[in-house]
């Protein structure tokens, strides 16, 4: 065909398309007018619209109600355990164990400071937390939530004590978390009853879904609510048929919730990395367009970099795998504009595997380069711990053994599955997630096979309605992310709080999934002459959701009511006596050394300088802690004295619960210190190259105050639990 004929043919084709478009526009205009008139004159359609409005109002009312129930339940559980409103201030503060007490101490400093600005300046030049070093706490730790709460408390005249304002704020944040889970399930299932069921599952499984009532100031209690708000917003954003306005609003919600999640917890980088993996996965499978994925990844990257900026250039974030993977992914998404629209199943599978390997390889490469460039070594203990954990070797490394010996950093325990099963949620979750995963695999493979026929491209738009995840890409994203969160929970028990809310969501989705019940009704050919299929589906799933809510509530509510009837009171007289003695008998400038967990409480209750603490994300601090822990090792008194003098320590606090702890297969603190020193622990332990030391254990021998020890250390306080020695 000549060029002239081609031009003429193209012109004719363009004219036909233009005429067709105009005709379509006219017809659409006429149809819209006819629909408008029909709606006005049709009372059934008006009734349907009224029902939709009423349904939304009921759904929102149920959401607010269940959110308030969760806040009240969390508050009451905490109150019944400690009788928090009735105990002394020092007892309240002691109840914030380990790192919780450390975080709360900064809020206390900010509230008690002459001005908020002065309090912030003191935190940037802190002399109490790592004596004798001066550190910038805002750069080292994620404590902007304490700054925000102190600002609110100081500027609004609340008729309550600072500590009560603090814990109540955290409890109300758990109400926001329920809102996030409720909306997420509602958006996924198109039923607010499913959202209510997911929320009920979450509340009844509180032992495995959160630990707010037992550790209020933990970073996760502030950040997790924003993660689930983000999940709900992402669900709206990823839906294929959403208005431009709603898309922009949902993306804005994603941006803000992602930022606050990252700001409030130091583990942000690991969760953002898993989210980025899921985002990359749904893109490379062709389920969500690159344009949407890139915008969400930009929200992640901007949030991490903004947090890095607010933390005075926190280099640990810059060198994180999350930042590297997001940067690599954004590059790949720009180079490979969209998934291949042609090719065999093998070709597409090869493409997915190839892009995944490339992205992961570049992630590790870029992260390594950034770490060398910025001299980042703060997170090396994490990778050492993971290496030792998965190789199952008997490591001598002090930092690794501390993590490996803590149950919360071990693999998930069987009792978690037992409780989730007894509370009905796991039996509903497992088949739902498995079936959805199988449908996802089938959809992707079917889509790849359907793309090419006789080496000619098929218009996929005509087939979109035939494939489940073409209509529900939002569900596809959450399916993939839940797999990553599940894997994280299995390898690290502490991280189960990311996975168990998804268990609740998918369990409710399994009961209230609209497409599933539509398929069942069509398959069984169950029809009603007076009702359409859509109405039957709504009736069936609503009835099943109500029935499930009734059964779950009926079975589990009596146990909750019995739990709320049991009332206890905080009782730790030895620790109270210790803190009161320190306040009354030492100078405000006197510094203390002891276990990391105890020293966090010492700083909070006495405002005395401490040498080390449980926030373990700095290499220098880890090395310093290892030296100071020689107080529990087999060391001569002069060696321990030299270490303490090196760090200008005035007092040491020894705990018999640590010094005389029973053997735990090399997991006692004294054993960890011995093994790191190359010394055989008291209880024989099978690690090669350990020697038997003839030097007695320091923490045990110093109690006798023999001349050899008394010339370096003077006993000044003792009760059934603690001993304090002044460093001479």
Unreliable stretches, pLDDT < 50, 5 or more residues? 1-41, 452-466
Looking at the structure, what is the overall shape? globular
- The number of distinct structural domains comes to 2
Percentage of β-strand residues: under 5%
**Order of strands in the sheet with most strands:** 3-4-6-5
Question: How can the largest sheet be summarized?
Answer: 4 strands, mixed
Calculate Rg over CA atoms: 30 Å
Separate helix tally: 34
Secondary structure class reads mainly alpha
The percentage helix is 55-70%
Separation of the first and last Cα atoms: 102 Å
Number of strands: 6
Task: Give structural notes.
Mean pLDDT is 88; it is low at 1-41 and 452-466. The N and C termini lie far apart (102 Å). A hairpin with a 2-residue loop joins strand 1 (452-453) and strand 2 (456-457). The protein folds into two domains: 169-565, no CATH class; 573-727, Rossmann fold (3-Layer(aba) Sandwich). The chain is 69% helix and 3% strand. The protein is mainly α and 728 residues long. The chain contains 34 helices and six strands. It has helices spanning 3-41, 43-82, 89-94, 98-112, 116-124, 137-140, 144-155, 162-189, 192-204, 206-209, 219-238, 244-264, 268-284, 290-310, 315-318, 321-335, 345-374, 380-391, 398-404, 414-422, 425-450, 468-471, 473-491, 496-512, 514-524, 533-565, 573-585, 596-606, 619-628, 637-646, 656-659, 669-676, 698-701, 707-710; strands at 452-453, 456-457, 592-593, 651-655, 713-718, 722-727. The longest helix is centred in the first third of the chain and has 40 residues, at 43-82. Helix 11 packs antiparallel against helix 12 (244-264) and helix 25 crosses helix 26 (533-565). The strands form two sheets. A four-stranded mixed beta sheet has the order 3-4-6-5. The chain has a two-stranded antiparallel sheet with strand order 1-2.
